[in-house]
Amino acid sequence: MSDQALLTPFHKNLDLKNRVVMAPMTRSRAANDGNVPTEDLHVPYYTQRASAGLIITEGSQVSKDAVGYINTAGIHSKEQVEGWKNVTKSVHDKGGKIFIQLWHVGRMSHPDFHDGQLPLAPSALNPNAKSYTPEGFKDTVTPKAMTLEDIKQTVTDFKNAAINAVEAGFDGVEIHSSNGYLFHQFFNGTSNHRTDEYGGSIENRTRFFFEVLDTVKQVIPQEKIGVRFNPSLNGMFGITLDEDTIPTFEYLIKKLNDYNLAYVHLSEPFNDVSDVPFAVEHIAKHFRPLYNGTLMINAGFDQDSGNKVIEEGNADLVAFGKPFISNPDLVARFKNNYPIADWDSDTFYTPGKEGYTDYPFYSEEN
Asked: Was domain 5-365 assigned CATH 3.20.20.70?
């Protein structure tokens, strides 16, 4: 089975031993005052999975303003950088490669995370969702519409986070511009009602994203930057598709041909969009002809469909989420055609090692 497309090396800006990518997944294990990655949890968790061609970490907030979930490890303090250094060294010692996902949740947050202050967003529009706070799930609130100074500061926050990522030893960064978070809120007409240079036209609604990208590439080479999008997200995280949604992502991805990025990371629809006006059902197939660089795809893939999407030329890399939670040796299981272990969704976000670092390798289990 070693001739599988997923298991072939990849060499284009990235030098990867295989095309199996560990997707970024929030796991809420930084249960300490500084939201620092720890040696007893984060180090073994990522090191166990170092056989992946590339690991992309959980979303890591670029500032205190960016937080929206409990116990998520940041990349804006010295202590966090030191914690991540332990992770990257251990992964590299095992022959792995690791990017950090830079994250700002925008309005998908709650005042409980911000000393009672409102979370930031492009416009003062409540996503009418839930935020998982230290006191449990709470309804989201109407956020504060970002001023031009807020936008400028956030650009700087991403730049500083990228500098910190380099210091922490990461092989690159992924800008999280997906899943209803801050950049996605700027892209979408139902969350962005601005009338200045950051609202209205497609060019304006994507301006903030490109300002961040252009600033980040000043401190880290373009070929070490990935970006992530979820074009057909609908009815989740406060996002509703409209007639401008897909044209917005087509504009973004075509314009990214002018850059020399590590990859563009796309998600297939999270839910059924077959009856949703303006939606695209098959993301990789739709966007592959528009982008000349490395295309990564995720959401719902298994061994067979992952091999197929590469063989058909619709993606170069495939990111796996939940299968990597319960199968730290996922690459070996693909190679040897071993069965894939089930995951326990009840322990996705709970404290401690249970459901995090205690899933066995197939060789240990048998």
From this structure: yes
